[in-house]
Amino acid sequence: MIEYRSFRNYDPPHLLRLWQQAGLGWGAAVTVSNDESFDYVNYAQQHFDRAGLIVAVDGALPIGFVHAGFGCTEDGSRICKQTGVIYAVIVHPGFRRRGIAKELIRRAEEYLREAGAETIFAGPGPKRDLFYFGLYGGARPVGFLESDPVAASFIQSVGYEPVEKYSVTERGMADRDPVNFRLTKIRRQWELALVDHPDPCPWYWMVRYGRLDALYCVLVPKEGGLPAAGLTVVGLDRYIKTWGEQTIGIVDLRVEEQYRGQGFGQALILDVIKRLRQETITKITANIDTSDEASIAVFQSAGFRPVDQGIVYRSRS
């Protein structure tokens, strides 16, 4: 008989086993250890609530789980319990088609609504990606990937509709960089600077990138002054065995309003790539909101090509 309960301290090895056996596709880092990876970015977070991680057990054996949590406020300063998120739902292949995943979702929704959630999303997204960073989606978690074989059909079958789409893109570090007059002009007056974190550094940045190998990169005037653009570079070491190469992710590209449309975003991305060629990195990836035409154009101009798509869903009820 299948029973359901909240997370217990001896669950992590079993939940990692389920993660590895679920067949999530190329976008999941599955060849990871529990302590330094899965536990570190999930259960060790201060905002982790054991009541939101609901485990399905067959006797004493965990055979599935759902992880429900929340997003954060728009300024990134704290948790926002008005926004609920189904971060993951996993059932062992041998126990599927028995209604277990559906019951896990129902219990997760009940937990979120009792905590104050007014809207519930299935799949993480920007400002709603406080767990599984560096473990799913590549550069950042962006909903459920199209390459995840069963995600879309199941999520829609339990009352969710797609509301956000993200292009998962990548390029090789050895690929040829574009050359044009705008880039040459920018590089005469601007240079790349690397810092540990943005200043001021919001809580949202630290709870995700602070637990990974990350740097904040800015394009600043050579003669001093405020940056024109900035982005975060995230090391994706947990994917080395899965993908067979060392990869970094670019996230949160931002160009200040007065510099948009002038090539500063492209210049910053290409300068970051140029700097990182000195390392052993072979691939760079970025996940981009498909409704953000400007960002799509910037990454295309820097040589990125789409390889997958992430979809975020929202509850119809």
Give the structure's gist in a few sentences.
The protein is built from nine helices and 13 strands. It is of the alpha+beta class. It folds into two domains: 164 residues, Aminopeptidase (3-Layer(aba) Sandwich), CATH 3.40.630.30; 138 residues, 3-Layer(aba) Sandwich (Aminopeptidase), CATH 3.40.630.
List the helices and strands and how they pair.
Layout: E1 2-6, H1 12-21, H2 34-41, E2 53-58, E3 61-72, E4 79-91, H3 100-114, E5 119-122, E6 144-145, H4 151-157, E7 160-172, H5 181-189, E8 190-195, H6 203-209, E9 214-221, E10 229-235, H7 240-243, E11 247-255, H8 264-276, E12 283-289, H9 293-301, E13 305-315
Parallel strand pairs: 4-5, 11-12
Antiparallel strand pairs: 1-2, 2-3, 3-4, 5-13, 6-13, 7-12, 7-13, 8-9, 9-10, 10-11
Describe this structure in words.
By secondary structure, the protein is an alpha+beta fold. It folds into two domains: 2-165, Gcn5-related N-acetyltransferase (GNAT) (Aminopeptidase), CATH 3.40.630; 170-307, 3-Layer(aba) Sandwich (Aminopeptidase). Helices cover 26% and strands 32% of the residues. The chain is built from nine helices and 13 strands. Helix 3 (100-114) links the parallel strand 4 (79-91) and strand 5. The protein is elongated, with a radius of gyration of 20 Å. The mean pLDDT is 95.
